[in-house]
Write a structure and sequence with these properties.
alpha/beta, binds zinc ion
Length: about 240
């Protein structure tokens, strides 16, 4: 099984990856949110088999110094190790950065993804209309990370994007999300932890880690009335296709 979205600290990564392998999670995509994070994710991917790096600057950073480091991001992407650009997108829930700045940074990273022929990993919170508008001109592969917007599903599926479910799929109040999960064609599904955030039931309140993606797989299988092992294999194959692993 693969965890397609985890935030890993270098020091803790070996132990987390070992526990993941023990749980049947042999592959992890480490997702960066800053330039230093990009360098760390790349180093981790070089040092650990089964670990891949996605490089990007988070919308939370759009108002600060990180946003001026796109040349560095471009250079790191040119190294050829990264499997995706992201996470990038828009966050109007936290609104840590001015919206125009978020949009500029998002569009710049979409251009980088197009230039390097890489998929994009999208973060969208309470910004669905603007996110979809910005993505309309992007012709590459799109992964909707931590999918939490059932209202966006029809457009997302119509455009052929991947839908990545995280631990919030297991929450008791998440039945609209589980309905969305049922409606997804099998070839569009991905799974992730978004660790260290969003631990799935029954581990809520604990620090999340890649091993726990198995709980979200169980919830997804249950929601869809499918067998978990077969669904997990399908999702693994989807990740191979989405990220060209
Ligand atoms: Zn994330």
């Amino acid at each position: 099984m693969i965890d397609t979205h985890a935030h890993l600290e270098s020091e803790e990564a070996p132990a987390l990856l070992e526990r993941a392998r023990g749980a049947g999670v042999g592959r992890v995509i480490a997702v960066a949110t800053s330039i230093e994070g990009c360098r760390e994710a790349l180093a981790l991917s070089e040092a650990n088999g089964g670990l891949y790096a996605s490089l990007g600057i988070h919308p939370h950073e759009a108002g600060g110094a990180e946003a001026a480091r796109l040349d560095e991001l471009d250079e790191l992407l040119a190294g050829g190790r990264a499997v995706a650009v992201g996470e990038t997108g828009l966050d109007y829930f936290r609104d840590y950065a001015p919206r125009e700045a978020q949009l500029r940074l998002f569009e710049a990273q979409l251009s980088l993804a197009a230039a390097h022929g890489l998929p994009v990993v999208i973060h969208s919170r309470e910004a669905d209309a603007d996110t979809l508008a910005a993505l309309a001109g992007f012709e590459g592969t799109v992964v909707c990370h931590c999918f939490s917007s059932p209202g966006m599903l029809a457009t997302v599926l119509e455009r052929g994007y991947y839908v990545s479910f995280a631990g919030n799929l297991t929450f008791p109040n998440a039945s609209p999300l589980r309905d969305a999960a049922r409606l997804c064609p099998p070839e569009r599904l991905l799974l992730e932890t978004d660790s260290p955030y969003l631990s799935p039931v029954p581990l809520r309140g604990r620090r999340n880690e890649p091993a726990y993606v198995m709980h979200t797989l169980d919830a997804l299988a249950q929601a869809r009335g499918e067998e978990a092992a077969a669904l997990g294999a399908r999702i693994d194959a989807n990740a191979d296709a989405a990220f060209a692993l």
